Structure formats: structure tokens, C-alpha cells
């Protein structure tokens, strides 16, 4: 033994020495060598240092023009000075350290496509007529809703407009190209434009003929469009109207400074300032709320560059800045010029500008406009919050504070007569820091007045009354709540609006109870409020750019609830709701999609199919793909809500539309979405669905053909494995299609075929596979990524079908498959990688493992690591599926060799290699024996590696191959590994330590306790301190190992050590992870078994006194387990004695332990029931609810255990104690009561319990009847048949019914006439 | 734990899905009708019970079974018209 140990010792020492030497060589500090600075530091490392003393703020001083207007000092910002910031290399100034802790808004994670709806002003569509109200009367033309004809007209106009505009754009582009080649020779048009932007002396654009030409869109500048007669509110949205700021005219504002001038940065401030807030259409942008009558609506939703191009300088008119919320004026130089918002009009009102507003320290230098009611972007919001906090800290000292600060004897002088206080708020803000900056050094805020001041500050922006706090971003929606008004003086409409607003605010920001109450109220009053006022407030909120997930969830919930109540009232608002909810259907968040579906399906149920169709019909041939996409998805949801058959005629018509291909496209897409959404539920309608779309395969429009093929693919996927007969008609066009198409169209067709082949029977599948395989093999070479993925998928599907023979695949497919797909490039893309592995595994299932592995095994030594990984993963999957019987000795050698190579060469240690190695070794089993020494050598070497990851992986590998080592009877090797692992128990990285413990566990498991080296008596004491480790992985593995030892080899360790471990285990009961707690509890059981229950029990009972509930619960479970493993009679006396401790927690703990114990010991309960009955009886008479509750649970478990052992007397006695608890109200007690009754029903028989129940079934008090019926129902469901014998004899109503017309009603009721007796019972009695 | 609690809070709803369960407004007639049907079902289901009854009534088993089935329709006679209000 010791010699072996020495050998290992020597080996590992040699390794360590070598490693040290290598390290030293790498660093160049060989012992005895001269050490030079250049050896330690790199030669030119100093280039990174500053070679100058930071200058005296030379170019930053003039930073603040306004500063000179302040008395002599410059306000100091917190944090490092500008110098330092300037000179820190490679610092990302935009880095926001708090970013990861900020709750992300939904807008943040939307992609370009999803953002579309936000970029478009006023998407929320106005009200529409309800054709189905009042029984389908022709609606009043004077009504304010818009009719179907109007909407269709608008859409036609809009589409025509977009077309024209696109044409214009194309023409302009052509013209642009021309002009750039002719007019100015070298200068391209874009260069022209750029130069003009910077060129200070640029002439006015109007004089530039070229600019005119370029600015094709000046013809449609929003300013003109605004007066456009078409009342298309919100619909202007879908076209790609260039925004005003893109026109060159808007990009050449007045420049007066030269670039070299320091004042240059002022010129970058928003130049187009709004002069007044009330200048009609240039009104503060605000998300529309309330009445959206058309004119007003257009005007507001049109982005307009304002005309006033006055420069705003803070030192001039700070007051003005307050009206311009959309644009912050950055002051600090570090704010990029480009990041300044140019024209506030260029942004969609109320929407997020794409420009990053400076945050963090930079924001400190900025003055913020006072919060007026303007929409803010999240970034602005952040800056604003931050800034407000800074203001708070820098607020001037109050009189009280000064009094406290100065010694007595000072007096307050009156201000000089000439002094005029600053009135402009913006200036006031910049002026505040002055007093603060006069003293430097550390300063602790006095919390008392800090808080009071803060609350004052907050109060300013908070609504009065019992309302939750407003977030700054809520201001625009809830501003009306800030005004104190007399509710009585408002019109009923306004009152309603205010009421709704309050409720919504409570739901959005309130505490859970507040929210719950508000939600109930808004639901109850939904019809009273009316659909209009409700949706006009909810929907804009949902469109808010700063909305968070939770808030959206709540608002969606509100809609959901009120939809039920509003029912048909909702009809005029269907489109409005759709516009807001449809985007949820393409949200990346699964739950958002589900919520969206739920709302739309409820909407469909409330509004009816006809309304849904007439509302969404216009969107079907919308020119914007986004709208069509979401509409198609919404339609699919409608179909799932109202049934496919209801929608079929409509879909048929749409898919056959002659007018526009967009309609056909959308129609087919709807069917595709239906298939995806409903899955196999489409089967009854499969034939008609296929018929509806089949003509799309030969449509003249490419896109329609593609979507049709995709639709068929979706249908086939949903129908699998049934329904091939429904697809008969499309097979031919599909096969013709794959011969005719190329590119994207072909991909879609192939996909459809790929999904169809698995539905066919073997013979057909074989035939069609051969047909399609020719095309597939041709497409193997396609460079298109999408095509590659689809081809791989189809190959996989074809290979998986029964009809295809292995020989065919082997000969026809494999050569080119490996030639074109098994290359390094495929490994780079994650999705390709996945798909290729799956397909290859599928092929291996067909042609056998050695065929495939032979082809790829040499690639294990490829130079690309990603590629090697792909190979390993494939081999792993193949060998797990098919085993290693197919692999000959040569391949086996190659395999192990390759895997060892790949394992050693890996640079990023991840699970793929590890699992691959493990799978191969386990699959080869005994055949590994020859290679094990080599593998172990590798493992040992890697266990000694510098990198923690490598060591961890090596340990993990030991755990994986321990079984095989045992199989190869390499106990000696395992012993060595065990010793090495034992030495590494001092490991400092918890992840690694966890793996090492896991490896030890793996070895112990297979080698057994007695043969283990190091011996258990040495191993366990080393583990005890490790139990203290707080890392979850370490804890889990350690407790597993300890538990295993306690279970199988407890006798190797002295009892004292086990007691010590017991104490450590108590701590583990606090662990968050359930598996750790469970392992700890089980270990208690093993230990108790090993050393006897008394000491363990004493420890555990002591632990019942602690405060923490989780600890107590775990302790009770542990007690129960101990009593189960060591027989209850060893534990019960102590436990029952503990009940006498007059302490609530302890008594409850004892009861709980009893409950668990009876649950675990089952039938053994019969020996203990009479012993514990007095205790339970006492507990059942306790005033404390929890006492009774726990006792009832115990009784429930106990009576289940003693069923059939004749303990009815005790049970009946206990039932008498349980029964009065029938009227308890706490849900936990009710639950315990029901479970006790259920237990007693089994233990005592249902008849007995029935007689307890009968007394209350027809009690005059409803409350009594309610609960008694509940108990009766539980009984009835549990023992329906047995109850038959137990029912009471019900007295007959003697007189037969004779219905006499002349008899008075009163008499008839009085007349009893039913026959309740069960006569057959008399046969028995 | 949470799961079980939830089930119990919905217990009533769950129970109401079964035929034969009752509630606070169940009338005597409804309840006893259910009792009778259960009883007949039990007789029909237990082979020995059916034999016994047939013996007692001196009828063929098939006829007894038929009778029992027929009686399940309105085992306690027609309901009172005003049952709900009583």
C-alpha cells in the first residue's frame, strides 16, 4: 500500500516540478539568472503610461460658457475630473455600469422588424362602425365611427400613394446617379450632401438645383402632407415616408461658427426649437389619448420640423429649454456631436429617438428641463432621475441647517436692494451646486433632512390621494391626476376618465392588494365606463416605449377581463385593439405571445366572427408586410377560437383573390399559421385546407408560390403521421415545382416535400425519395445557408422513412453528402452544426455506425476545434444510439486515438468533448482495457494542470469512466486515481472541488467501501470540513459522498466523527437547493442507523427550537426519517416527551414529525396509534390553529396506515375531535381537515363519516350546508359504491301526484307525492 | 405544497364535474334521485345483488335488470314544479 502511495506521490511531485519549471521558463525567471526589468515587464510596456503631467484643464476650461456667468467657481461634478477621463485609454464612455441591473423595457429588446410599429405615428386606429349592433340595421351615416367602405377606400388610396412614391423614389435615384456623373464631375451626390452639412458657408439649399433634384421627397414633406385631404389617420404609417429630417433642407440649419471655433458645440444643440408650445400642430408631442377625432389626430401624428431655427443657448434663455423636452442639450464636450438630437420634429411624437442620450456621469453636466408633460425616452428618464438625485444632494442649505452649523451670534442680513433673484428655473438648477463646491472633502449627508427634502421633491410630481407613485415615464399618461381638481365640478365624462385613470395607475404601479382591488373594480364597472373611454386610455399605455414586461402583463390582463364584460360593446374598437395586441403575436417572449393569443381569441368570442372578418379584412392586402404578417397570425388565432369551419369560406375567398397577390399571400399564410397553432386539430379539415391553398403552387407570383409550399409543409407537419390522402392533389405540382424552381422557391418546395415524405407508406416514400434525392444532391453544393439547412432537414426526413434502403443511401447519398457538408465551414454556424449532426446521426441509424464513423474518424485530428467538436458530438450520438458492436478493432484504435487527441488539444473546455469521451468509453466497455492506462495518464496529467477548467474536466471524466474501469477490472488504477483525487481535496476553486468530490464518489460507488483507497477512515475526516463550504456544487457532491459512505461503510468511521458530521448537516438544511436538503436528511437516517438514534435525535430535537421555519421543517423530516430507519419505538418516547416543552414551535415540530413519520411508516402505525392518541387528542383541543392543523394531517396519515387493522375505536375517537374543525376558514386548516376526513374515510369506512355529514346537509344555514356538502362530495367521489349501503331511509311522500287544474297552487306544493324508499333493501334486511 | 393547495381551493369546482355530487341548494328530490340511481347501478354492477333480487322477486335476471334500468329515469317520481323556490 505505502509503496504504491509513494509511487504516486513521486509521480505527482515530478509533474508539479515540471510544471513549475515550465512556468518559470515562460516567465523568464530562472533561478540564479539575472533578472532585468525588461524580463518582467514587456519592452515597450511603458507606451501605455502617461508621459506628461495632466495639464491645467487647458482645453476643458472653456467647457462651460455659462460657467463664466456664475461667480468664479465652476460647479464640480462628482467622480473623476475631466482630465482623468480624457486620459484613460480604451475606456468605453458609453458604458453604463448599472445597465445589467436595470429592468429592461420591452422596447429595448425589440428588433428592427418589431420596432416598425413604434416608428409609425398614430398606429392606433380610430373607432369603426358596428354593423351588427341593433340587429344589423344600416348604421347612421352621421355616426362618428368609420365605415367599411371608407376604410377600404382609404387603403386603396394609400396603396396607390405608396406605389407612386416608390416610383418617384426610383426615378429620383436614377436621376441622382445621373447628376453625380454629369454635373460636378468627381463629387458624388452623397459627398455633396455631407459636405454641405459641415460647410459653414453653404448656400441656401433652394438655390442649389442639385439638391432640389435629390430631395425628391420635399414634394411630400410632412408639412405639406399634413394638409393632404385624405383622412388617413394612422394609416400614413405603413408607407416608408421619409421623415422630415432626412431631407437635405432640414439638415442644413444655420451654421455660424467655424469648426475650429470652440463654440462649435453650441451649434450642435437643437437648432429647431419650438418657439411656443401652443403653436397649433407643433404642440408638445403626446401620445394621443381620449377623443381621436380625425383632424386633430392627423395633425398631431404628423411629424413636422418646426420652422424656428433660433439657437438655444443656455446662457441666453434657459427658460425656453423647458418647453423642449424632446431634446436635451448636452453641455460636456465628451458628448459626441452626432449624438445631439437635431430636430425634435424628426422623431415620431412620443416615440424613442434612436440617439443615445448620455447617461451616467456625463449627465451630471447636463441641465435638464423641468419635467413638463412630455414623453421621455428611457435614457432621458434615466438621466432625469439621476439628475434629480444630484440636485437633491446639491440643494442649497436651508436656514435651519445654517443655524445648526454656525455658532450663535450670526445674523441674517437683508439682501441688497439691487439684487434680483434668478427666476428662470433652468438657471436656478445650474446655480444650485455653488455652495456645495466651496468645501471639498468627505461629507456625510444627514439622512433626516435629506429624506424630508426628498419626499418634498417627490411630492411635487406625485398625484394626491391614495394612489401609487408615478414613475417619470408615466407622467404623459397620468398627468391629469397631478392637478388638484374638484371632482364635483367635472363633467360626467371627465369624472369617468379620471376614475379610469386612477384605476389604471393603481393596476400599473400599485401594490398587489391595491392592484387586485382596482382590477376587480375596473372589471365590475367595465360596462358602465364604456368601451371607448377604457380603451382610449389602456391602448396608448400599451404602446408606451418605456413599458416593462410586468406592466404589459397587467394591462393585457385588464383588457382580458374587461373584454368578458364588454362583450359586443367592444366591436367598434376591435381594430384598435388588434393594432395594439397583434405585435404581441410576434414577440420573442413566449408568454407575451400566449397573452396576445388569449386576448385575440377572447376578442373574437366577444365581437363575433363577422366583426372580426370585416375589421381585419382591410389589413389583408396591406402593402406593408409587417401588417400582413401580424394580421395573418391574428386570423389564425381567430380560427382557433371560433373553429376552422367558420372561417373556411372566407379563407377560400381570400386565397382566390384576383385583385391582389398580397391578399392571396396573406390568406395562405393564415392557413400556415393555423396549422402551426392548432397542430393535429386541423386533421378534420385537412382536405379543405389543402384544397384552398393548392392553386397557390402555380400562382404567377413567386412569393405566393413560396408561402404555399411553406403552408403545405406546415399542414403536413401538423397532420403527421396521418392524412397523406389529403395531399394527393398537391404532390404533382410540388414535384413539378422542384424541377422548375431555383433558390428560395425551391427551398420552400423541398421543405414541403420533406414533410410530406414521412406521411407516405414505405413504397411511395422510397419512390419519391429517389426522385427528390437527385435534386437534393444537386443542391448539396448550394452556397445558400438557408438552402443548406432545408436540404439537410429533408435528407434527414427522407432517410428516416422506412422505404429507403441503406444500400441506396450508402451508394448514392453518402459520398456527396460528406464531400459537401462535412467541412469546417459548416461547424461555424450554430444552426448548421445542429442540423448536420442530426442528419448524420439519422443516416447512421440507417446505414450503421461504422460506415459513418469510418468517414469522420480522421477528422478528430482536424485543425479546427469547432469542427472536431462537431465530429465528437456526432460520434457520441451515434454510439449512444447504436452501441459499438459495429466497430472493428482498427476503427476502435483510430477512435480512441482521435478522441484522446481532440481531448488534449481542446482550448475551450466544455461538455461536448467530455460527454463525447465518456460516451465512447462507456460504449466500448471492456474493449477499452488496453487504452485505459493511456487515458488515465492523460487524466492525471490534466488533473495537475494550471487551468482550473482543465482540472475540473479531468475530474468529471473520472466520474464518467469509473464504471468502465471497474468493468475492465482496473481496480489498481482506480485506487491510484482515488489517492490522487484525495490529495487534491485542498482544491481552492469550488467548481473544481465539486468535480473532484464527484469523481471520488464515482470511484467509491464502483470500488466499494472496503477496497477504497484512501481508506474511508482517512477520507471522511477530510470531508467534514468541506461540508462547511458554501458553494452549491461542492455541498451537493460532498453530501452525496458522505451520505453514500454513511449508507454503505459507516462502520469504518468512529461514531464521534459521525456526530460531528451531524452538526455540520444541520447547517446544510439551510441550503437553497432542494436536492442538498434531501441528501442531508437522508444522511441523517443513515447515520442514525449506524450509530443509533439517540444522539442524532437529541441533536435534531434541539434544532426544533430555532426560529427559521425551513430549518424546523427539514428537522422534522429528518426526525421522521430517523424513526423510520431505526423503528419508531426508539424515537417516539423522546419525541413525545419533547411535546411537553411549553413552546409553540417545538410542539408543532413534534406534531409535524409525527405526521411525516406516520406517512413514512405506513402499516407500522397500528403499533403506535394507541400510544399517540392522547397526544393527538391534546393537540386537537389546543387553541392554536396550527396545532390542530398539524395534528389533523398526522391523523390523516395515521388512519390511512391503520386501514384494516381494527383500530376503529381510536380513529372514531379522533374523528370526534377532528369534526368540529369543519367550520374553520383558513385554507391550510381546511386542507388539513379534508385530508384527515379522507384518511378517516378509508380507515373508518365511509358509512361512519356519512352519518356525521348527514346532520348538516339540509341545515337551515347556508354556511353550514355549503361545507357539509363539500365534505359529502369528497366522500361521494371517494366511495360512491360503498355509500349505497349507508344512505338513510328517506320517508316517502305518500300521496301520488294527481294534477288537478282546479287545485290551488299553494295546496299543490304542500302535497307531498314522491317515493323515496329503496324497497329492494328490504330484501336484505 | 403550492400545487396541492391550489387543488383544494378549486376543490368545489372539481367536484361539481361529477354527476351525483351536490351543493348547498340541492333539494331532497335531487339528492334522493341520485341515491336511487347509485343504488340501482350498484345492484346492477354487483352480480350477487342482482341474483338476490331476482330470487326475491321471482323474476328472471334479465327482466330485473331491465326494470332497474328503467327505474333509473325518474326513480323518485317527477320533481315538484316549484322545487327551486322551496
Automatic annotation (TrEMBL), chain A:
Residue ranges, compositional bias (Polar residues): 448-465
Segments of skewed composition (Low complexity): 177-190
Biological-process GO terms, alphabetical: spliceosomal complex assembly
Domain Splicing factor 3B subunit, residue spans: 306-448
Region (Disordered): 1-75, 162-212, 227-329, 447-466
Entry similarity comment: Belongs to the phosphatase 2A regulatory subunit A family.
Protein name, per record: Splicing factor 3B subunit 1
Organism annotation: Rotaria sordida
From TrEMBL, chain B:
InterPro entries: SF3b5/RDS3-10, Splicing_factor_3B_subunit_5
GO-annotated cellular components: precatalytic spliceosome; U2 snRNP
Domain of life (superkingdom): Eukaryota
Compartment(s): Nucleus
Any single Pfam family the record assigns to this protein: SF3b10
Gene Ontology process terms (BP): mRNA splicing, via spliceosome
Keywords attached to this entry: mRNA processing, mRNA splicing, Nucleus, Spliceosome
Keyword Nucleus part of the UniProt annotation: yes
Residue ranges the record marks as coiled coil: none
PANTHER family named among the record's database cross-references: SPLICING FACTOR 3B SUBUNIT 5 (PTHR20978)
UniProt family annotation: Belongs to the SF3B5 family.
Protein's name according to its UniProt entry: Splicing factor 3B subunit 5
Species: Rotaria sordida
Amino acid at each position: 500500500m505505502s509503496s504504491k502511495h509513494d509511487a504516486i506521490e513521486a509521480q505527482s511531485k515530478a509533474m508539479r516540478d515540471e510544471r513549475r519549471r515550465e512556468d518559470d521558463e515562460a516567465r523568464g525567471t530562472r533561478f540564479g539568472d539575472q533578472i532585468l526589468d525588461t524580463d518582467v515587464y514587456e519592452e515597450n510596456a511603458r507606451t501605455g503610461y502617461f508621459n506628461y503631467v495632466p495639464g491645467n484643464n487647458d482645453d476643458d476650461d472653456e467647457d462651460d460658457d455659462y460657467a463664466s456667468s456664475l461667480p468664479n467657481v465652476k460647479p464640480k461634478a462628482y467622480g473623476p475630473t475631466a482630465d482623468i477621463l480624457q486620459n484613460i485609454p480604451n475606456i468605453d464612455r458609453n458604458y453604463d455600469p448599472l445597465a445589467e441591473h436595470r429592468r429592461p423595457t420591452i422596447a429595448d429588446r425589440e428588433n428592427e422588424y418589431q420596432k416598425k410599429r413604434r416608428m409609425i405615428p398614430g398606429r392606433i386606429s380610430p373607432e369603426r362602425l358596428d354593423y351588427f349592433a341593433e340587429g344589423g340595421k344600416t348604421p347612421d351615416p352621421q355616426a362618428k365611427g368609420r365605415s367599411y367602405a371608407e376604410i377600404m377606400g382609404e387603403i386603396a388610396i394609400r396603396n396607390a400613394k405608396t406605389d407612386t412614391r416608390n416610383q418617384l423614389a426610383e426615378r429620383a435615384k436614377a436621376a441622382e446617379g445621373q447628376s453625380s456623373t454629369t454635373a460636378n464631375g468627381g463629387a458624388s451626390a452623397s459627398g455633396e450632401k455631407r459636405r454641405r452639412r459641415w460647410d459653414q458657408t453653404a448656400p441656401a439649399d433652394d438655390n442649389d438645383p442639385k439638391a432640389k433634384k435629390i430631395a425628391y421627397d420635399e414634394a411630400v414633406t410632412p408639412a405639406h402632407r399634413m394638409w393632404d385631404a385624405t383622412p388617413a389617420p394612422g394609416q400614413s404609417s405603413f408607407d416608408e415616408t421619409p421623415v422630415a429630417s432626412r431631407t437635405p433642407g432640414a439638415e442644413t440649419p444655420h451654421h455660424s461658427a467655424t469648426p475650429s471655433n470652440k463654440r462649435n458645440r453650441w451649434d450642435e444643440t437643437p437648432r429647431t426649437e419650438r418657439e411656443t408650445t401652443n403653436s397649433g400642430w407643433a404642440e408638445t408631442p403626446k401620445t394621443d389619448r381620449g377623443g381621436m377625432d380625425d383632424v386633430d389626430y392627423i395633425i398631431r401624428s404628423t411629424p413636422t420640423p418646426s420652422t424656428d431655427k433660433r439657437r438655444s443657448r443656455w446662457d441666453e434663455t434657459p427658460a425656453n429649454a423647458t418647453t423642449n423636452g424632446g431634446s436635451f442639450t448636452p453641455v460636456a464636450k465628451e458628448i459626441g456631436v452626432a449624438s445631439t438630437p437635431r430636430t425634435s420634429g424628426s422623431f415620431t411624437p412620443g416615440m424613442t429617438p434612436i440617439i443615445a442620450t448620455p447617461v451616467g456621469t456625463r449627465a451630471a453636466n447636463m441641465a435638464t428641463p423641468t419635467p413638463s408633460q412630455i414623453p421621455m425616452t428611457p435614457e432621458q428618464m434615466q438621466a432625469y432621475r439621476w439628475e434629480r438625485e444630484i440636485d437633491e444632494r446639491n440643494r442649497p442649505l436651508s436656514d435651519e441647517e445654517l443655524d445648526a452649523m454656525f455658532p450663535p451670534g450670526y445674523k441674517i442680513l437683508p439682501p441688497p436692494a439691487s439684487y434680483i433673484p434668478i427666476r428662470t428655473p433652468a438657471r436656478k438648477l445650474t446655480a444650485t451646486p455653488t455652495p456645495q463646491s466651496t468645501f471639498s472633502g468627505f461629507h456625510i449627508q444627514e439622512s433626516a433632512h435629506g429624506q424630508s427634502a426628498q419626499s418634498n421633491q417627490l411630492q411635487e410630481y406625485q398625484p394626491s390621494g391614495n394612489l401609487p407613485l408615478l414613475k417619470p415615464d408615466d407622467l404623459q399618461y397620468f398627468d391629469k391626476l397631478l392637478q388638484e381638481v374638484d371632482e364635483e365640478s367635472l363633467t360626467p365624462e371627465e369624472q369617468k376618465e379620471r376614475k379610469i385613470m386612477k384605476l389604471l395607475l393603481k393596476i400599473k404601479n400599485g401594490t398587489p392588494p391595491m392592484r387586485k382591488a382596482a382590477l376587480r373594480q375596473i372589471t365590475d364597472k367595465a360596462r358602465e365606463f364604456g368601451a371607448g373611454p377604457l380603451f382610449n386610455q389602456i391602448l396608448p399605455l400599451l404602446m408606451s416605449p418605456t413599458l416593462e414586461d410586468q406592466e404589459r402583463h397587467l394591462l393585457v390582463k385588464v383588457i382580458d377581463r374587461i373584454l368578458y364584460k364588454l362583450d359586443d360593446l367592444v366591436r367598434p374598437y376591435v381594430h384598435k385593439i388588434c393594432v395594439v395586441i397583434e405585435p404581441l403575436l410576434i414577440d420573442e417572449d413566449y408568454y407575451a405571445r400566449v397573452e396576445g393569443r388569449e386576448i385575440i381569441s377572447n376578442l373574437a368570442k366577444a365581437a363575433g366572427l363577422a366583426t372580426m372578418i370585416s375589421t381585419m379584412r382591410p389589413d389583408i392586402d396591406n402593402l406593408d408586410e409587417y401588417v400582413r404578417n401580424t394580421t395573418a397570425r391574428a386570423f389564425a388565432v381567430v380560427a382557433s377560437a371560433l373553429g376552422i369551419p367558420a372561417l373556411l369560406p372566407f379563407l377560400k375567398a381570400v386565397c382566390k383573390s384576383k385583385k391582389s397577390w398580397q391578399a392571396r399571400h396573406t390568406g395562405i399564410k393564415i392557413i400556415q399559421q393555423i396549422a402551426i397553432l392548432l397542430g393535429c386539430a386541423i386533421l378534420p379539415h385537412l382536405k379543405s385546407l389543402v384544397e384552398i391553398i393548392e392553386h397557390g403552387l402555380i400562382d404567377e407570383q413567386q412569393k405566393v408560390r413560396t408561402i404555399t409550399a411553406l403552408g403545405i409543409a406546415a399542414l403536413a407537419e401538423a397532420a403527421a403521421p396521418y392524412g397523406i390522402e389529403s395531399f394527393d392533389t398537391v404532390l404533382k405540382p410540388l414535384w413539378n415545382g422542384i424541377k422548375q424552381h431555383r433558390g428560395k422557391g425551391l427551398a420552400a418546395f423541398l421543405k414541403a416535400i420533406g414533410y410530406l415524405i414521412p406521411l407516405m407508406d414505405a413504397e411511395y416514400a422510397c419512390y419519391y425519395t429517389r426522385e427528390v434525392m437527385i435534386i437534393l444532391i444537386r443542391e448539396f453544393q448550394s452556397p445558400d445557408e438557408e438552402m443548406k439547412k432545408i436540404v439537410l432537414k429533408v435528407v434527414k426526413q427522407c432517410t428516416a422513412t422506412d422505404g429507403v434502403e441503406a444500400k441506396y443511401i450508402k451508394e448514392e447519398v453518402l459520398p456527396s453528402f460528406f464531400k459537401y457538408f462535412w467541412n469546417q465551414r459548416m461547424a461555424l454556424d450554430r444552426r448548421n452544426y445542429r442540423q448536420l449532426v442530426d442528419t448524420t446521426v439519422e443516416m447512421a441509424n440507417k446505414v450503421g455506425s461504422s460506415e459513418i464513423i469510418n468517414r469522420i474518424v480522421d477528422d478528430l485530428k482536424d485543425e479546427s476545434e469547432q469542427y472536431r467538436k462537431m465530429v465528437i458530438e456526432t460520434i457520441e450520438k451515434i454510439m449512444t444510439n447504436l452501441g459499438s458492436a459495429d466497430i472493428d478493432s482498427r476503427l476502435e484504435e483510430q477512435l480512441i486515438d482521435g478522441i484522446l487527441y481532440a481531448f488534449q488539444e481542446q482550448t475551450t473546455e466544455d461538455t461536448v468533448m467530455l460527454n463525447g469521451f465518456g460516451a465512447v468509453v462507456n460504449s466500448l466497455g471492456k474493449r477499452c482495457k488496453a487504452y485505459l492506462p493511456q487515458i488515465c495518464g492523460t487524466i492525471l496529467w490534466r488533473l495537475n494542470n494550471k487551468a482550473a477548467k482543465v482540472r475540473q474536466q479531468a475530474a468529471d471524466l473520472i466520474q464518467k469512466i469509473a464504471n468502465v474501469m471497474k468493468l475492465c477490472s482496473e481496480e489498481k488504477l482506480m485506487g491510484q486515481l482515488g489517492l490522487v483525487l484525495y490529495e487534491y481535496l485542498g482544491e481552492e476553486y469550488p467548481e473544481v472541488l465539486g468535480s473532484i468530490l464527484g469523481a471520488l464518489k464515482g470511484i467509491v460507488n464502483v470500488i466499494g467501501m472496503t477496497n477504497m483507497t484512501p481508506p474511508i477512515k482517512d477520507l471522511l475526516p477530510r470531508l467534514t470540513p468541506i461540508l462547511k463550504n458554501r458553494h452549491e456544487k461542492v455541498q451537493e457532491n460532498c453530501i452525496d459522498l458522505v451520505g453514500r459512505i454513511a449508507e454503505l461503510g459507516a462502520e469504518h468511521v468512529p461514531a464521534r466523527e459521525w456526530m460531528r458530521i451531524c452538526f455540520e448537516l444541520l447547517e446544510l438544511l439551510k441550503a437553497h437547493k432542494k436536492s442538498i436538503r434531501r441528501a442531508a436528511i437522508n444522511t441523517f437516517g443513515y447515520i442514525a442507523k449506524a450509530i443509533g438514534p439517540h444522539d442524532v435525535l437529541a441533536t435534531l430535537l434541539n434544532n426544533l427550537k430555532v426560529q427559521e421555519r425551513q430549518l424546523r421543517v427539514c428537522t422534522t423530516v429528518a426526525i421522521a426519517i430517523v424513526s423510520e430507519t431505526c423503528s419508531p419505538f426508539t424515537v417516539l418516547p423522546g419525541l413525545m416527551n419533547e411535546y411537553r416543552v411549553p413552546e409553540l414551535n417545538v410542539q408543532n415540530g413534534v406534531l409535524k414529525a409525527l405526521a411525516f413519520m406516520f406517512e413514512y411508516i405506513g402499516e407500522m402505525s397500528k403499533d403506535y396509534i394507541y400510544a399517540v392518541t392522547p397526544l393527538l387528542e391534546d393537540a386537537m383541543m389546543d387553541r392554536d390553529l396550527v396545532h390542530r392543523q398539524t395534528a389533523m394531517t398526522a391523523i390523516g396519515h395515521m388512519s390511512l396506515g391503520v386501514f384494516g387493522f381494527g383500530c376503529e375505536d381510536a380513529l372514531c375517537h379522533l374523528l370526534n375531535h377532528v369534526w368540529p374543525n369543519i367550520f374553520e376558514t383558513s385554507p391550510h386548516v381546511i386542507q388539513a381537515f379534508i385530508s384527515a376526513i379522507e384518511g378517516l374515510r378509508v380507515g373508518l369506512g365511509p358509512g361512519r363519516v356519512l352519518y356525521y355529514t348527514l346532520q348538516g346537509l339540509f341545515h337551515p344555514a347556508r354556511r353550514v350546508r355549503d361545507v357539509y356538502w363539500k365534505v359529502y362530495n369528497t366522500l361521494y367521489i371517494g366511495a360512491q359504491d360503498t355509500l349505497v349501503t349507508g344512505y338513510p331511509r328517506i320517508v316517502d311522500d305518500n300521496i301520488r301526484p294527481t294534477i288537478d287544474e282546479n287545485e290551488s297552487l299553494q295546496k299543490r306544493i304542500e302535497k307531498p307525492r314522491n317515493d323515496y324508499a329503496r324497497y329492494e333493501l328490504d330484501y336484505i334486511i | 405544497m403550492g400545487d396541492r393547495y391550489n387543488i383544494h381551493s378549486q376543490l368545489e369546482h372539481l367536484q361539481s364535474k361529477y354527476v351525483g355530487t351536490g351543493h348547498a341548494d340541492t333539494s331532497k328530490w335531487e339528492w334522493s334521485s341520485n341515491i336511487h340511481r347509485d343504488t340501482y347501478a350498484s345492484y346492477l354492477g354487483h352480480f350477487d345483488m342482482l341474483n338476490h333480487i331476482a330470487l326475491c322477486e321471482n323474476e328472471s335476471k334479465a327482466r330485473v335488470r331491465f326494470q332497474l334500468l328503467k327505474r333509473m329515469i325518474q326513480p323518485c317520481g317527477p320533481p315538484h314544479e316549484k322545487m327551486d323556490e322551496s
